[in-house]
Amino acid sequence: MATERRIARIESRIRQEVAELFIRDLKDPRMKGLVSITRVKVARDLGHARVFYTVLGSERDRRTVARFIESARKFVQAHVASRLDLRVAPIVEFTYDDSIEKRSSVSKLIDQAIAADKAAAKSSRRKSSDEEE
After folding, report:
1. Taking the model in full, what pTM does it have?
2. Cβ 22 vs Cβ 38: under 8 Å
3. How does pLDDT run across 87-108, given as a tens digit for each residue?
4. Of 5, 75, 80, 126, which has the most beta carbons under 10 Å away?
């Protein structure tokens, strides 16, 4: 089993290699929208690496990019294997990272709650000043 520090180094290296590969070598019309590699999670035994990505674009762009990435998965895996100095290269899997969208929706909900609280406070202040007169 690898140490947490070593796993973190490998995750960082895989993230860097995959991101550079997407920018440099995977020029394809199906790569619509901006694709970002957000994080990589490597199993403790170093046998699997899950690469999380996000796409700036429409839902249709996201689905198109997902199909393209899946078709290029073995190429990406071979590239990662050749660039990393590991005895056994991890099996690379791609997963769409919706955490940014979730954070955005939570932020919107918080903003709405704050606005509702301000409106309620303003309304209660008006009500109390009307009662005093």
Report:
1. 0.73
2. no
3. 888 999 999 998 766 666 676 7
4. 80
